[in-house]
Write a structure and sequence with these properties.
Radius of gyration: 18 Å
Distance between the termini: 39 Å
Helix content: 10-25%
Mean pLDDT: 87
Order of helices and strands: HEEEEEEEEEEEEEEEEEEH
Structural class: mainly beta
CATH topology: Jelly Rolls
Largest sheet: 9 strands, antiparallel
Oligomer: single chain
Number of domains: 1
Strand order of the largest sheet: 4-1-6-7-10-13-14-17-18
């Protein structure tokens, strides 16, 4: 390796260490499929199994890609293909007398994901999409783009789906709602047909 190349490599490593070293670690990568990258403070890296993930990190997935993330409170997030997710805020405090405290915002800008709650005590965790915000009560649910619109599918627990048009609560397994825009209230909850559920979950299932 010549001196100029070595200098560039060392500079990149220093920038990478600085960007990630100054940010709170919030979990780890448990599994990846195909191309997955993380971005933080203009530093870009390939995400691989067992790497740490950080607050404010952006996760992008390629065609046919998947990535599984495990947060420190035990919550699990699976992100599907061609997705853009920002871990805007995720603060876990497991030392409180009343159990774990979690405060967080996960911003789904594109694509689909499945979230399963962990050992949540005080819950101030939300998933924000371009058309609605989802309040999590301790649950397992899917959210993302399907059939040209955004949808939310509850698998267990309960979620509250809100936007400028109104709010609906999903509290029965396999209930779903469709959201057409930020200003139109989410559709009345109803059990999604089996084929629609299958298509939604297939997008966040590892091959």
């Amino acid at each position: 390796m010549n001196r100029s190349v070595a200098t560039i490599v060392m500079l990149f490593l220093c920038l990478n260490a600085s960007a990630y070293g100054e940010t709170r670690e919030i979990g780890t990568v448990t599994r990846t499929q195909s191309d997955v990258v993380g971005e933080l403070a203009d530093v870009r890296r390939d995400l691989q199994k067992d790497l740490s993930i950080f607050a404010e990190e952006t996760v992008r997935t390629g065609e046919s890609a998947r990535v599984g993330l495990l947060f420190k409170d035990g919550s699990e997030l699976i992100i599907g293909a061609t997705a853009h997710v920002v871990l805007d805020k995720f603060v876990y405090d497991g030392n409180g007398a009343k159990g774990a405290n979690v405060d967080g915002v996960i911003n789904l800008l594109k694509g689909a994901m499945r979230f399963t709650s962990g050992r949540l005590g005080h819950r101030s965790l939300r998933v924000v999409t371009p058309v609605a915000t989802i309040g999590i009560r301790g649950t397992d649910f899917w959210v993302g783009q399907i059939d040209g619109v955004y949808g939310v599918l509850l698998l267990s627990g309960a979620v509250e789906v809100s936007n400028d048009g109104g709010t609906v609560t999903l509290d029965e397994p396999l209930q779903g709602t469709t959201i057409f825009s930020q200003t139109v209230a989410p559709d009345r909850p109803g059990v999604w047909p089996g084929d629609r559920r299958a298509r939604a979950l297939a997008g966040v299932t590892f091959n």
